[in-house]
Amino acid sequence: MVVEVGYAQAWDPEACAPWRPISVEEARERDATGLPYVVVYREPGREAPLEVRLVSWRDHYVGLWVYDAQGRRAYDLDMRLLDEPSRLLRRYTVAWHYTDPEMPEFDEKCPRTTVDLFPDGRGQRRQENQGQDGGVYVTSPTVGEDERWMDRPAFGEWPLLSAQVHGLAEPPTFTAADPGTGKGGGEPFEPGDGEAPVTCWRAPRPAQPGPINELFRPGVRVTDGYHPEMTVVEPRRVAGLRVPSGLLAVSGPDADEGDGPRITVPVSPGEYVLDEACVRYSYHCEWRNAEVTTTSCTAVRLLVSETPATAWEMALAPDDDPRLFIENQIAGFDTDGATGCFADAGAWEPLVALYERGLIQGEPDLDGYEDLDDGSLFMQHTWDEASGGELMAFATTGDGTYPVWVGRSDVGEVVAVVVLLEGMPEVLAERDAADADADGDA
Question: What InterPro entries is this protein classified in (predicted)?
Answer without folding.
Answer: DUF4241
